[in-house]
Amino acid sequence: MTRPVSSRPPAVKEWRLNLYLSEHDPDTTARIVLDTGDNVLESCAEARRSPYDPDVPEIGDELAAGRALIAMGRVLLRAADGDMKAVGSNETDDPSPLWMDRE
After folding, report:
1. CATH of the domain at 54
2. SUPFAM superfamilies in the record, alphabetically (predicted)?
3. For the chain, N or C: smaller number of CB within 10 Å?
């Protein structure tokens, strides 16, 4: 089976994501800045080490960065939802169950 030939070449885009980690014992903060070329989006998250746990900075980095990446995913899904509504999409469901009312 042959596929129709598209009249335009495939789009290739590059988005730049910067992740900034800041440690102030026992807290680690991660800030993400995503530049899509059209928009700049940001998210932040934190991790806090229990005073009873050993001091392993990599764990705080991983937790804070992972949480900030999840938060960025939610930011992107909200942006997509707004864009779909702006163009008159008939989609009635939220694009993801990852949304949380408190964010």
Report:
1. 3.30.160.240
2. Rv2632c-like
3. N
What contacts 24+ positions apart, CB below 8 Å, involve 84-89? none
Q: How many domains does the chain have?
A: 1
- Assigned domain for 38 exists: yes
Residue 40, token pair as written in the block = 């700049």
SS3 61: helix
Say if residues 42 and 34 touch (Cβ distance below 8 Å). yes
**What Cα–Cα distance (Å) separates residue 60 from each residue in 3, 28, 38, 91?**
49, 6, 32, 38
Q: What is the pLDDT along the chain (103 residues), one digit of tens a residue?
A: 566 666 788 889 999 999 999 999 899 999 999 999 999 999 999 999 999 999 999 999 999 999 999 999 999 999 998 899 899 887 656 655 555 555 4
Token pair belonging to 97: 């169950």
Q: Is position 2 within any domain?
A: no
